[in-house]
Design brief:
Elements lengths: L11 E5 L5 E4 L13 E3 L7
Antiparallel strand pairs: 1-2, 1-3
Length: 48
């Protein structure tokens, strides 16, 4: 079975849109723990 790059792993990486800090978590945190900014899930590549 081949790996599907569009299926998120159990632990995902989130990046703050304001300060760039990256956090690994199983569920999306509400805000960045450093600056309080919004986070985006960067674990799964998006199609361009």
């Amino acid at each position: 079975m081949t790996h599907d790059p569009y299926t998120p792993p159990e632990t995902r990486t989130f990046e703050c849109l304001d300060c760039g800090r990256r956090t690994d978590a199983q569920h999306q945190p509400v805000t960045c723990s450093v600056c309080g900014g919004d986070l985006r899930d960067i674990s799964v590549p998006s199609e361009q």
